[in-house]
Amino acid sequence: MAEWTSAEVGVEDTALCAHFLEALPVNGAAVSVFGGAVPETIVCATDRLAARLDELQFDLGEGPRWEAVRTRLPVLEPRVREVEHPSWPVFHTALMDTTVEALYVFPLTLGALNVGIVELYSTTPGALDRTDHAKALVLANETAWNLLDHLLRVQEAATGETSLTSTDSAESPLSRREIHQATGMVLVQMNVTPTDALLLLRAHAFSHGKTVRAIAGDVVARRLQFSPETN
């Protein structure tokens, strides 16, 4: 499966995801960072479906990625289409429109520190065997260290940028800078917390059949202004 070009994502970052495809029987991978020197953002995706799975969960605020972050444990769904998922029913319904048969999500943690998440998908149902599960844990640990090192270097550079790489521009399909900017604007408009501001963006996007990124663009461009009556 082809990876995105270096013009769309950084080559170094894309390699973080590629390692999982090389070592494991999966079809796609995405890595996101949580906390640290940057807001929550996707770092790399091996293909557009992997990126879309991450985007859907971010937009909906539900899915195995959030469960893995909350529990700090792997969430393994070898037959994700065949089982009910009461904790993320909307995302599960959305999966029915894809070729995904199995999902394996691993939190990227170092001690008490939450660094990020890696999401793997397969178009063939089945559990990871003991060897592959062990490989995934080792790769997740290595990825956590690599991401932490990158975050620290970004922080030490003291550039004031919120991106992970120089390619994370406003035009990059992986950038969520505009979403974070819109969250700040909604925070002021509605006098709510950052968490509630993001929830308002998600709710508006879901109710209008759009992505959070699209709604954020409208907010930043001042085509949409939130008020107590907006939602």
User: What oligomeric state do these chains adopt?
Assistant: single chain
State the low-pLDDT regions, or none: 1-12, 158-171
In the CATH classification, which architecture of the largest domain applies?
A: 2-Layer Sandwich
Distance between the termini: 40 Å
**Domains, number:** 2
Shape: globular
Q: Using DSSP, what is the number of strands?
A: 5
Give the strand order, joined by hyphens, for the main sheet. 2-1-5-4-3
Task: Using the coordinates shown, work out and report the CATH topology of the largest domain.
Answer: Beta-Lactamase
Determine the CATH superfamily of the largest domain.
GAF domain
In the CATH hierarchy, what is the class of the largest domain?
Alpha Beta
**Count of helix runs:** 8
General description of the model:
- The chain is of the alpha+beta class and 231 residues long.
- It folds into two domains: 14-155, GAF domain (Beta-Lactamase); 176-221, Arc Repressor Mutant, subunit A.
- The chain has eight helices and five strands, in the order αββααβαββαααα.
- A five-stranded antiparallel beta sheet has the order 2-1-5-4-3.
- The longest helix has 28 residues, at 130-157.
- The radius of gyration is 17 Å and the shape is globular.
Structural topology:
Elements lengths: L10 H13 L4 E6 L7 E5 L2 H13 L3 H8 L3 E3 L11 H7 L6 E9 L2 E10 L7 H28 L19 H14 L3 H14 L4 H9 L11
Antiparallel strand pairs: 1-2, 1-5, 3-4, 4-5
Keywords, separated by commas or semicolons:
alpha+beta; single chain; 231 residues; disordered N terminus; globular; Arc Repressor Mutant, subunit A; 5-stranded antiparallel sheet; Beta-Lactamase
